[in-house]
Amino acid sequence: MTGREQMDSSEPGKSRSSSFRAGARSRGAFAPISVNLVLLVATGYFLLPVLWLVVAATKSRADLVSSFGFWFTSPQLLQNLSELFNEQDHVFGQWLLNSLLYSGVGALVGTALAAAAGYSLAVYKFRGREAIFSLILGSVLVPATALALPMFLAFAKVGLTDSYLSVLLPSIISPFGVYLSRIYTQAAVPTELLEAGRVDGASEWRIFRVVGLRLISPALVTVFLFQFVGIWNNFFLPLIMLQNDRLFPVTLGLFSWQSQLSREPQLLLLTVVGSFVSVVPLVITFLSLQRYWKAGLATGSVKG
Amino acid sequence: MVPFLLIFIAPIGYAIIQSLQKTVREGGLFGAPTTVWAGLDQYVRALNDQDFISSILRVLLFGVVQVPVMMVLALALALLLDSQSARLKRFHRLAIFAPYGIPGVVAALMWGFLYDPRLSPITDLLGKVGIVPDFLGAGNILWSIANVVTWTYAGYNMIIIYAALQALPADVLEAASIDGAGPWRLAMRIKVPLVAPALVLTAVFSIIGTLQLFTEPQVLRTITTNITSTYTPTIASYSAASANDYSYAAALSVLIALVSFILSFGFLRITSRWNGS
To answer: Mind listing the domains of chain B with CATH numbers?
Structure first.
């Protein structure tokens, strides 16, 4: 939270009459009621599909089609969940674990690489440094889906497709992470500190680990989060890389169920419940770590 | 550190080179497939492919409408949240941002269910007042997709703009309101110009996102026949790859990457000229 916001939220505690008078004078066209009304309508729009999903996940097959979608009818969430996890030899649990593996390992390795690359781009002056940085910035502008297909062709050549590695390897690349790490290193790591380390006889690797990593760790949390969510939400890459449904991440698994609906209509309820389950852990992590998002986004937009 | 950099850059470079290599080979039609150098044949083919051209025009139309709508929505929400009158700021901010954490596949599935007349409570409700919407019809489907995309990313853009608004120096805003600027003038004349860099950033990412439009239409394809196998450029290249037409698929990928690079780079150039820097 920034200082300005804290001031805002402490305002109601002040003398009510004075803040009311100030408001009446300066608010004019932006009447508080209309501001808050518009906000409520907007929030309703963003929450409505989520409400539907939560409600629908608790319904029986018959109620899902026949009852009113925005309210509960004889909830049976636990029964639905056990059916979901027992379907097709526990394949859904496997998908969740796969997603966790792809996102966790991919984001961890990706963040480490981005930190090292960003740090070296910020600290060391070497021939072609700016060219490399421009290349990285340029690759932020190249859509990931346009790269996925060439990667598939390359992996097919060396027989890597349809494996864990085929999804993990492309996932660890994060030009945006390198960009953020470089910007943050420039802002947060003073050159004098590095010089002091060198004078004390520390190796470059040691300085990076002990001084650099520690100082840029707030930015690294942001890079990690972005990559984690990015990989978790990725769809195109696993879609073209994977054939074996035991390797699917949860997004691809749900899509495969959805595409079988015309042949196997009983999968409809499971697709709904599965969508619900796949969202819950992400939304929780996401909301509880919100301040890191804001920090990272502010760095990206203001300093960029 | 340089080795790290090489590991990092190599896959990107390799992918691009590979795609170029592939595009200049061609599988034989009869007998064992052989790969031959075909020069720019695949690109000529792509540029003469009416379906591919119309898919590009389709996403351009989509982008021209959807990106500004989403940006205005995100900016308006950020300004409202930043205004003195707003209450429950934290709640609103989280609720508006939350869709970004929902996978595109799941978002498209959810909205697909809400569009599907067999399941949707929305069509139920509208039906009661005599409106029968056809969200999945040929004329509406593009805008139904636009709605899913807007729903997913408006909150993300809002947060970026909001963070920039929060970082504005308080004394500038104070001086303006002492000079008699009301909230509307304050927002339009002071805040919006000052957060212009954040707006440019979010617009560029939105343009890139538009050109790779894939997940939403691909998921909605399972419930409507109005999305063809060449509906967007990325679906077209995916379809080509599914049909084992790899060289053509690679050519399409390169073209998509090129077009989106040119567009977003051009947009950056134009806006930086506006800002006089």
So the answer is: 48-274 (1.10.3720.10)
